[in-house]
Amino acid sequence: MTAENITDIANTGAYYNGSEKQEYFDYDSYWKDLIDRFIYYLLKRALPELYNAVDTNRSHRLLDKEFRDILNTGDPSIHTSPHFADLILEVPLKNGNDKWILLHCEAQQGSGGGNLAERMFHYCCLIYAHYRKNPVALAIITSGHRKDERFYSHSNFGTEIVYRYNNLVLMELNDDELRISDNPIDLALYAAMCAQKTKEEIQKFKYLRTLTELLAERSWDKNEKRDLVLFIIRILNLKDEMLQKQYWEYCQQLNKEGKLMYEPFLKQVEERMAEERGMEKGMEKGMEKGMEKGFVKGKEEVARNLLFNGIPLEIITKSTGLPVEQIQSMIN
Predict the structure, then answer these.
(1) Which of 38, 255, 272, 314 could cross-link to 262 by cystine, CB 3.0-4.6 Å?
(2) 30 and 231 Cβ atoms separated by less than 8 Å
(3) Helix, strand or coil for residue 150?
């Protein structure tokens, strides 16, 4: 793995809009991957009461099909989520039952947009209408405090609705506590907090070094550490090539000091990122072929291939320009 690979890792998930080359980083997918991988650690941090009731010896289930079902609605506002990663998960309980979790993560860097509280309530209503399930709801706010959107309320001539849900607000967490925590999700949250604090390349480099050293000190599972360093590099998004080279040299030094099994460790990261880069190139090639023909059929074929390979719906929509409803019809 070289400094060039660090560049590839940082830029994986970047998409470009026409000739303007406007960069878009798929922060939603970064967070979705993280949450799916570390859901029990997240519950321990954000919903300790539920965590204590969960049977952590059994696997959770990501309810993609169920989520697609509730999105099969005529309301166009529900189909687009430029600032949110939306998930439904099922976790097993110690008493033999299961519990659904409706989880929203305001994942894109920036000020965010839309009415989060209304969105939370809307999804809850859709889930109940389809499945008669009352999910545990959690909103993870990664940018700003959003103090105005802690619950949804509506009053109409004596009829009143108040819907309260759980909030994990990144910038309200204690960074010292996150730094010393033995919970892997806390290191990821701290990395996201660092990313929010600065846009300066040198400061991002310093944060990246600090986070990598903290990761090296932990005795966590090597696959967990691999996925965490992947998230950390992505979320900090260091672009300066000289600093990327210095970061790689720092990693090599850690390896020499025996602080981290870095060669096999980063080799796993490199292999995973190479796979993702291959997917991106396949997407671009397929799009070019479809555009050359000038037919919607070309786009549809690309969309089907991306669906088959598990690419998230919102990325396919942005990449092909096809309506969400049209892509969903390929699923159903």
Answers:
(1) 255
(2) yes
(3) coil
